[in-house]
């Protein structure tokens, strides 16, 4: 549903029950899309809306956004930081392969040497108005990436945290994510180096 103030809402029930945004006077349009027709980010966004307490869907959505929307920029920066040409960097999405295990979401390796050069942790925040949650995700990801960088199993010279806020309703309505969340760039990307690395 789209409202007269430009906001959108997604409804996953037959009765079309939704929370109406403050300041809304009328619905300007309603689009009905069958769940079975949704793919990729849109399907994950719908799952996140219909099961908002399920952290699995939020994690999968964050990783999918990084994979589909941000990967080229991440690879470009990884190449510059590591000195490894972009075409010689292999990307492994570990988070989706090893559900429930404490592993970095993404690992980049040099295809010639097999050496891990970059590890990444991706976090998702659904509400760009919730700056505190965004800040908490930054702190959480920073802690995790530093722990991974110093863990023998995941040691790499560089790590990165990626925090993205993109309301699932906006994804379904083809509205791009906001460029800022409070004082932070969105997506927020922070690169770190391992001590001694």
What string gives the helices and strands in order?
EEHHEHEEHEHEEE
* Strand coverage percent: 15-25%
Low-confidence stretches are: none
- Largest sheet, if any? 5 strands, mixed
What radius of gyration results from the CA coordinates?
19 Å
Number of helical elements = 5
Q: Outline, from the CA principal axes?
A: elongated
Distance between the termini: 51 Å
Number of domains: 1
Overall pLDDT, averaged?
87
* Main β-sheet, spatial strand arrangement: 3-4-5-6-9
Percent helix, as a range, is: 25-40%
Q: What's the total number of strands?
A: 9
SSE layout and pairings?
Layout: E1 2-3, E2 27-29, H1 40-50, H2 55-82, E3 89-93, H3 94-97, E4 106-110, E5 116-125, H4 131-149, E6 158-165, H5 168-172, E7 180-181, E8 184-185, E9 188-193
Parallel strand pairs: 5-6
Antiparallel strand pairs: 1-2, 3-4, 4-5, 6-9, 7-8
Give an account of the 3D structure.
This protein has 197 residues and is α+β, with helices and mostly antiparallel strands. It has one domain. The chain is 34% helix and 22% strand. It is built from five helices and nine strands. The chain has helices at 40-50, 55-82, 94-97, 131-149, 168-172; strands spanning 2-3, 27-29, 89-93, 106-110, 116-125, 158-165, 180-181, 184-185, 188-193. The strands form three sheets. It has a five-stranded mixed sheet with strand order 3-4-5-6-9. A two-stranded antiparallel sheet has the order 1-2. The N and C termini lie far apart (51 Å). The mean pLDDT is 87.
């Amino acid at each position: 549903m789209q409202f007269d103030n430009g906001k959108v809402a997604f409804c996953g029930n037959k009765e079309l029950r939704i929370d109406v945004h403050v300041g809304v006077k009328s619905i300007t349009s309603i689009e009905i899309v069958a769940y079975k027709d949704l793919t990729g980010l849109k399907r994950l966004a719908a799952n996140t809306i219909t099961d908002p307490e399920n952290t699995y869907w939020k994690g999968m959505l964050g990783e999918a956004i990084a994979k589909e929307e941000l990967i080229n920029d991440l690879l470009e920066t990884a190449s510059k930081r590591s000195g490894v040409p972009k075409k010689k960097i292999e990307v492994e999405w570990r988070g989706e392969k090893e559900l429930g295990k404490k592993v970095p979401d993404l690992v980049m390796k040099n295809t010639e040497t097999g050496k891990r050069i970059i590890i990444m942790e991706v976090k998702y925040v659904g509400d760009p108005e919730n700056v505190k949650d965004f800040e908490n995700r930054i702190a959480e990801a920073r802690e995790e990436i530093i722990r991974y960088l110093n863990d023998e199993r995941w040691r790499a010279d560089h790590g990165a945290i990626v925090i993205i806020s993109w309301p699932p309703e906006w994804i379904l309505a083809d509205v791009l994510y906001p460029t800022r969340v409070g004082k932070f760039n969105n997506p927020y990307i922070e690169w770190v180096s391992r001590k001694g690395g």
